[in-house]
């Protein structure tokens, strides 16, 4: 009896709630930046959040950020889930302690002054924000672990609802902070910390019936998942996230040493946050590939969906960059001054390839995850880090171009080379999938 190929409609139904979740997360940075821009000392507070607090918080959470992909792939029975949960608890506690150690000791000045070279006026405001962000890592670890279970057992809609809860809390705290006219960095970090905490509580509550109905009765995996096997699978993913997130502080350090440093750091969270809203559509595709690639005749429909998605997101970004919609977003909504608006609008053109590259990276990474070749993903990220680092270093040495432009150009070039490497390293796995689907079709 012949089998029907995976339909684009089915892929869309799995992708949509995840994409909605990622889009809502992508909206968080632009909304926060828009509120900061309307409070006192907007340039300083935007630079403190985008140039210090956010990059440091991302680096600290690196060892847990890939728990979503790991949980989606490995939480096939209760015993496997408990091993992932134990890792989450230990890593969450350790990284939260590290977060506090950086924020509350002289190590903070070594990181911000010596390593990042941050402008003096943003260092103390950023320290306050970093302390407020303490719940960030542990709540994200808990949330991503359970979101993976939801995706694995076809409850991905809850992921989107959780992000909506988070964004709602963000907006509530931002509104209160704006009304009270609190410092922008306090308002921003309080909103983010509150948002991730309420989302983790919501996801934990909604995960309980899934544990009871789907996960605990699932057939016991044979052979069982061991900590050694989990480590072999997850360590390359940790290195991948660590190397990827190193780009944030590297970018901040480079922008701080190039022309128009304060303006570039102030615009950076607005431009990168806006572009990420388009990239998020492709980022969400990674878990879709991991969840659906094992189904019969799935390779070609998933590849076709990736092509459609990349064309759509890139076209949407071009439309905004080329029309007055850019002014609507960057000036009217984000409240950028005319000087910063020009800087931001030019940056959009440099980053036009990023949405499509994010989609294809998710496709190739999903294929590699499905085949167990996670080392290739780490190789690609290491290459990405090297290319970005060299391009940023060249921009600092040259010292004649605005830092924002150099940063976006460096990331675009590095992502292009990273995508090519992922394609090259996934060819064997893609060939095996072609053979599998051809056999099943026959």
What's the arrangement of secondary structure elements?
Elements: H1 8-36, H2 42-65, H3 67-74, H4 78-104, H5 107-115, H6 120-132, H7 136-152, H8 157-180, H9 184-215, H10 227-255, H11 261-283, H12 285-292, H13 299-321, H14 325-333, H15 338-350, H16 354-371, H17 374-398, H18 403-425, H19 427-441
Can you give keywords for this protein?
442 residues, mainly alpha, 0% strand, globular
Summed up:
The protein is mainly alpha-helical. The chain contains 19 helices and no strands.
* Distance N to C terminus: 10 Å
Multimeric status of the protein: single chain
So how many helices?
A: 19
Helical content (DSSP H or I, runs of 4+)? over 70%
Structural class based on helices, strands and sheet pairing: mainly alpha
Shape: globular
- Largest pleated sheet: none
Low-confidence stretches: none
Mean pLDDT: 89
Radius of gyration: 21 Å
How many separate domains make up the residues?
Answer: 1
What string, H for helix and E for strand, traces the elements in order? HHHHHHHHHHHHHHHHHHH
What is the number of beta strands?
0
What share of residues are in beta strands? under 5%
Can you describe this structure?
It contains 19 helices and no strands. By secondary structure, the chain is mainly α. It has one domain. The longest helix is centred in the middle third of the chain and has 32 residues. It is globular, with a radius of gyration of 21 Å.
